[in-house]
Amino acid sequence: MPSSGTKSDPHRHERQALRAVASFEFAKGVFVLLIGLSALLLVHQDAWVIAESLLALLHISTDRHFAQLFLDFADNITEARLYTAAWVSLAYSSMRFTEGYGLWRERVWAEWVAFTSGAILLPVEIHGLMRGITVFRTVIFVGNVGVVVFMIYLIRAGRQRRRAEAAATKSRSGRGM
User: Residue 173's CB: how many other CB atoms inside 10 A?
Assistant: First the structure.
């Protein structure tokens, strides 16, 4: 029997899982924001020189195919594209921060945002898996499916709880007459 000082919380595991998802969404927002800030740091810089230095730092030969693609990308980057990348990352990270806050505070609207944003990305992730299965792509896909399924569960459970509360309120108000 619980002591009078402790209260049983039947939804504790749901809350913990929801907070884990909220933390993950917040972390994604931080990561993308850092990418956007990095794009701003490249404005007025020679991106090719920075890309070449990065490859040298990582001991990657510039003769490799992907290194050449990376250098070509850096050579073709413009200030307009860097500013666009910064603005897009700001918008995306703002959405992730808002979603993370709402999930942490257990807001129904945030559950819908998490469900929708996760479901929208599933076809993109499936396409990526069709191009080639990697551990990274698989983990991202499985994690996103898990979030979407969990959000469906929370949305349905919340709807059932609200209906039960409304029915209880209605029956109490009916007895008082």
Answer: 9
Q: Which amino acid is at 105?
A: R
Model pTM? 0.74
Domain count, the chain: 1
In total, the chain counts a number of residues equal to 177
- Phi and psi torsions of 117, nearest 5°: -65, -35
Residue 48 within a domain: no
CB atoms within 10 A of CB 85: 17
Alpha-carbon distance of 169 to 163, in angstroms, equals: 10
Q: Is residue 35 part of a domain?
A: no
* Residue 177: per-residue pLDDT: 53
Do residues 150 and 17 touch, judged by C-beta distance below 8 A? Answer: yes
What rounded mean pLDDT belongs to the chain? 88
3-state helix, strand, coil in the chain (%, to 5): 80, 0, 20
Q: How far is CA 124 from the centre of its chain?
A: 14
7 occurs within a structural domain: no
Q: What is the pLDDT of residues 5-50, one digit of tens each?
A: 455 676 788 889 999 999 999 999 999 999 999 999 988 888 888 8
Tokens standing for residue 119: 């479901």
